[in-house]
Amino acid sequence: MRKFFYGLWLVIAAWLILFLLAAVAVSIVALVSLISPTIGSALDVVTWLVIPIAVAVWVVNDAQYFREQGIDTSPAAWGWGVFLLTIVFFPLYIIRRKITWPRKLSYPDWK
Hints:
0% strand
């Protein structure tokens, strides 16, 4: 039961981080839109691409580290998943990173 609540907490924390990033991005775009509507609309598109790209790059680098440690994972698959569906794959990645992979490193026979 404790593992369930820890996993649930990680999912909620990952979603909160994503929503905070999105809220900051929207606030910046709104402020720029007040100053210059043309720049604001272009910045809006760029912002919604930059957040998933930045998170995906971090996930790829982090997954590569775990792969070098001996975890059977595909950094490219995690990166594309996080880029295309950040709201779904980022919390899943955080759970795998914090719960499953450390156990596999500590107990190689654990599945």
